[in-house]
Design goal:
The protein is α/β, with parallel strands linked by helices. The protein contains 27 helices and 15 strands.
């Protein structure tokens, strides 16, 4: 029979009847004559009594177990080597599918009249006294009843096919967000996927975990580390050196500039100016980088001179231009005001092309920059120069503008196409705590670069331009604290890169961080709409919690109402003076499946996951085991030694160097 109310939170009355039946079985065995039975009837009666005792005892134990489960904090630990993984599924932890029953049970557990049942009795205190490991683990916090409403849990897996819909992980600080990242990254590495980890803070534990898992999976040769905080052991990367279209260089640089109000016009001018420089550099056979852009942003004339000479040397109509230029007389007073403040060599080249009626689109664009008076031109590009100074100052300059021809520099240079074709594992530490501006600029440029690569993969597949056929790989991007990295470049990566095999997992503390970063509620909503999977740990902001709770349906919960009434009887001939009535009424009510306060009270290492098209699961994530992992490096020095030995033989940890203005290299 199905009862409308489970009534699991109550005294275990079944144990009394079980005890009576068990005692009856003992008495029958001891004195069967008292019950006038013998032989087979005696054993039949004993069996019936024992069966009843077992049945009722099991029901009583389930009731006690449920009550204990509501107040017990269970810490879930697993060694790294024992983390489950599958080629077709993603392991999230242990838990259960949350439905109406669990909402009902949680409401009942929080009723004041049920609180005495949730406190341990004498037996519970004795168990905790003699077995300290049975006590609640310290430091988990939260309300254990949220997970305890379901005594039976199982491994929770998510289909890999769901990953390309992208995953958003929300949780306040120190509740297991980074540990969840380690769990997911570990599985991605073991599946052989391309793994890219963005870590704005530069968490050393996360770096050590990525490195250890690459070793464990036999993929250490595919591991790269890019770290702005440790340039002496970091791989090098040119954020604007790889592109499908030349205009991407200007977009990645100008995209870092403010675009509100009057700044929009300056941003457009900077975009055009950087695009002209990039086109000229590529035409000269030089790869654009931050140092080149910074050099010519301050003084474009050397680039103009190099390009015009390159152009004239290849232009048949300019044959003998060097001799003609020497004999050409120029009256500066007859020139435009902008040209009058420019150098003689640059002005002569521009004037020669004008008189010879020669035309080249890049040369024409470069010459147009000289038409501005130099002081006025410097004001137009004033917003570009501070950004470029930040990206070309100190030891990090050599990371972002690598000197490819330097044989003394052992640090590898990577680009995303090579990483994807190789099947690489890349850890990106942006050291945002030291320099937020540089971290944001580099991170956004990397996202823009990845979006460009995604477009190429979508159109042409992997291995474009390489001999043979390259098997497509999934690209797992993990962006920790992604609110510090998010920009206009991140949005197309979410809503367009899934078809190229990109699967983004983004981690942040509150959704307000994203709204503040984007500066637009509409844009933040656009970003949220591109995450099909949502995992939410403990959060402290109600608005963030509602990002999950508002997606859940209302459910019916049942409460009991005790009603009593007394009615007087006015008939003097009646035997009774009054009648009374007592009843328990069942009252259904519609409530939210989860309240925001439930997410505020989650213990550390626990989360709600909205997966598989909106199915809600409650999970406990495995926290790292306290046992030492033999593959875990002690620190950065060990990682640096391994990387250098892999590439260039013996190496010793470098001394600390001054990273002051103008310092370069190691």
């Amino acid at each position: 029979m199905a009862y409308p109310i489970e009534a699991l939170l109550r005294p275990a009355h079944e144990l009394r009847s079980a005890a009576v039946s068990a005692l009856g079985a003992v008495v029958v065995l001891a004195t069967p004559g008292t019950f006038l039975v013998n032989g087979a009837w005696e054993w039949l009666l004993v069996g019936a009594l024992i069966g009843h005792a077992a049945w009722r005892g099991a029901a009583g134990v389930r009731t006690l177990r449920y009550r204990i489960n509501l107040r017990r904090q269970r810490q879930y630990e697993v060694e790294s080597a024992a983390i489950p993984w599958s080629a077709e599924r993603l392991f999230l932890g242990r838990g259960f599918a949350w439905d109406q029953r669990h909402t009902q049970r949680l409401r009942e557990a929080r009723l004041p009249e049920n609180q005495p049942l949730l406190r341990p009795g004498l037996l519970g205190h004795l168990i905790e006294a003699f077995h300290p490991q049975a006590a609640a683990p310290a430091g988990l916090g939260g309300d254990p009843a949220i997970h305890g409403v379901e005594p039976v849990e199982a491994d929770i897996w998510m289909d890999i096919a769901e990953r390309v819909g992208h995953t958003l992980v929300l949780g306040t600080t120190r509740v297991g967000k980074t540990r969840l990242a380690e769990l997911l990254i570990t599985q991605d590495i073991r599946r052989g996927e391309v793994v890219i980890v963005f870590d704005p803070k530069g968490d050393i534990d996360l770096l050590r975990r990525v490195y250890a898992e690459a070793e464990r999976a036999g993929r250490s040769a595919e591991f790269f580390m890019f770290h702005l905080g440790h340039p002496e052991i970091s791989a090098r990367y040119n954020p604007v050196g790889s592109f499908s279209r030349i205009t991407e260089v200007a977009t990645r640089i100008a995209g870092q500039l403010p675009s509100e109000g009057q700044s929009a016009a300056f941003k457009e001018f900077v975009w055009r100016f950087v695009n002209v420089m990039a086109r000229a550099l590529v035409a000269l056979g030089r790869k654009p980088d931050y140092e080149e852009i910074n050099r010519y942003a301050s003084d474009v004339e050397p680039l103009l001179i190099d390009y015009f000479e390159h152009w004239f040397d290849r232009e048949p109509a300019a044959a003998g231009w060097r001799q003609e230029l020497q004999s050409m007389a120029i009256d500066k007073k007859s020139l435009d005001k902008g040209l009058q403040s420019r150098g003689v060599r640059a002005v002569s080249l521009v004037e020669y092309a004008r008189r010879k009626k020669l035309y080249d689109p890049i040369a024409h664009a470069l010459a147009s920059t000289l038409n501005y008076e130099k002081s006025h031109f410097d004001k137009l590009v004033a917003s570009l120069l501070p950004l470029m100074e930040k990206l070309t100052t100190g030891r990090t300059a050599a990371l972002l503008s690598p000197a490819l021809g330097d044989p003394a520099d052992w640090r590898p240079v990577f680009d995303w196409n090579s990483v994807i074709n190789l099947g690489g594992i890349v850890y990106v530490g942006l050291d945002a705590l030291s320099d937020y501006e540089v971290a944001a600029a580099v991170g956004n440029s990397m996202f823009a670069d990845l979006t460009s690569v995604a477009g190429s993969l979508y159109k042409f597949g992997p291995g474009r331009g390489l001999p043979g056929e390259i098997t497509p790989r999934r690209i797992a991007i993990h962006a920790d604290e992604f609110n510090e990295l998010i920009g206009d470049e991140f949005i197309p990566l979410l809503n367009k890169a899934g078809g190229a095999g990109f699967q983004v997992t983004a981690y942040t503390q509150t959704w307000s961080d994203v709204e503040a970063r984007t500066g637009s509620l509409a844009k933040a909503g656009q970003i949220a709409g591109n995450f099909n999977t949502l995992i939410m740990l403990r959060v402290k902001e109600v608005a963030t919690a509602e990002l999950l709770t508002n997606q859940l349906p209302d459910v019916q919960v049942i409460s009991t109402i005790v009603a009593s009434s007394v009615t007087d009887i006015d008939d003097p001939s009646a035997f009774a003076d009054f009648t009374s009535r007592n009843e328990d009424r069942i009252a259904p009510a519609s409530v939210r499946m989860l309240e925001p306060t439930d997410l505020v009270q989650l213990p550390k290492g626990q989360a709600f996951a909205l997966i598989h098209g909106g199915q809600l699961h409650k999970i406990r994530m495995p926290l790292p085991s306290a046992m030492h992992d033999p593959l875990m490096p002690i620190g950065l020095s060990e990682i640096g030694e391994t990387l250098r030995r892999r590439l260039d033989g013996p190496w010793t940890w470098p001394e600390e160097e001054d990273d002051s203005e103008g310092a370069r290299g190691d």
